[in-house]
Write a structure and sequence with these properties.
69% of the residues lie in helices and 0% in strands. It has 338 residues and is mostly helical. The chain starts with 10 loop residues before the first helix and ends in a 5-residue tail after the last helix. It is found in: Mitochondrion inner membrane. Pfam families: Mito_carr. Its main location: mitochondrion.
Length: 338
């Protein structure tokens, strides 16, 4: 990265650090995830429409929190948390693993490896890594979204929800619902981490390792930017992966374009940005904590790897010294007259 050369860490190390940071961050702010998902999946319908009375409608983030707690208790703010954290860990591990590999390959093959990749290259590398990560981890996201949007008495376990999805009209392919939207949404982490790398080189060009507050600030700002740009796609993806509104008589959406048209028809264009408040706030906190934790875990990993290397060198030196002593004694014992 030019002036900001980071110590070398293997891809699995950066992946483990990213996954650890993501799990910690998402566990801390999980209730916000429930609230933003509920806000994004709800559809404002005419009160005279069939089934309209059965559809909960939250007026704001705080209204959603109060009504979820009133209906399902505090545990309602943590429904689907286990599956969500599994999905977060697997997605971020896969993303950072592929991103590190792709970036290392680019730097090694570049004719000017000393220079930082351009913004366009950073975004492209992030998009490739995000697409590969989504292919392997989207089933967990589908199941988690179903859990988060279920009523308290209807919420099932991770495996039971997965079976419900498979038994639905789409069969096993239902676990990959929203894949196209997810692949389009790889621009979100691409923008996030591309902006993070670019802002890091702009604001802190001489730092070899960022301080916790620096990593938090850059992570939060980059995520807020990515969220504003991609919010309509995020809303459409949630609509695809959750149960369809009752007005559709159980008929699932076929594409994120269909979801967006449905939302615009019933709620206007601003409906595509519903839930953006908790989405940005959650992303601000999660990405800030994630990158701060990731930088610390990477530093600990560097120190641990250096310790292992020093220990191995010391062991090799002892073995070499012992072999030298044995060989000298053997040589001395073969000399005549001794």
């Amino acid at each position: 990265m030019g002036a900001q050369s980071k110590p070398e860490i293997p891809p699995w190390g950066r992946a483990a650090a990213g996954a650890a940071g993501a799990v910690l961050a998402n566990a801390l702010v999980y209730p916000l995830d429930i609230v933003k998902t509920r806000l994004q999946v709800q559809v404002r319908l005419d009160e005279s429409a069939p089934g309209a009375d059965d559809e909960p409608h939250y007026a704001s983030t705080w209204d959603a929190v109060k009504r979820i707690v009133a209906d399902d208790g505090i545990r309602g703010l943590y429904m689907g948390m286990n599956g969500s954290l599994i999905g977060v860990a697997s997605t971020n591990f896969a993303y950072f693993y592929w991103y590190t590999l792709a970036r290392s390959f680019y730097l090694k093959s570049s004719s000017l490896p000393a220079l930082s990749p351009s913004t366009a290259v950073e975004l492209s590398l992030g998009a490739v890594a995000g697409a590969l990560a989504q292919l392997f981890t989207i089933p967990v996201a589908v199941v988690t979204t179903r859990q988060q949007t279920a009523k308290g008495n209807e919420c099932k376990s991770l495996m039971a929800t997965a079976r419900e999805v498979v038994d639905g009209p789409d069969g096993v392919t239902g676990l990959w619902r929203g894949l196209k939207a997810s692949l389009v949404l790889v621009v979100n982490p691409a923008i996030t981490y591309g902006a993070y790398e670019r802002l890091s080189s702009i604001f802190f060009p001489v730092e070899s390792k960022l301080k916790p507050w620096q990593a938090f600030l850059l992570g939060a700002l980059s995520k807020a930017l990515a969220t504003i740009v991609t919010q309509p796609l995020i809303v459409a993806k949630v609509g695809l992966q959750s149960k369809p509104p009752r007005t559709r008589s159980g008929k699932p959406f076929k594409s994120f374009i269909e979801v967006m048209k449905f939302i615009v028809k019933h709620e206007g264009a601003l409906g595509l940005f519903k839930g953006i408040g908790p989405q940005i706030f959650k992303g601000f906190l999660v990405q800030g904590i994630l990158m701060m934790t990731k930088e610390r875990v990477e530093l600990l990993l560097i120190l641990f790897l250096r310790y292992l290397q020093a220990t191995r060198r010391a062991q090799l030196q002892r073995v070499a010294g012992l072999a030298s002593t044995v060989s000298q004694k053997a040589l001395a014992s073969t000399r005549p007259g001794l």
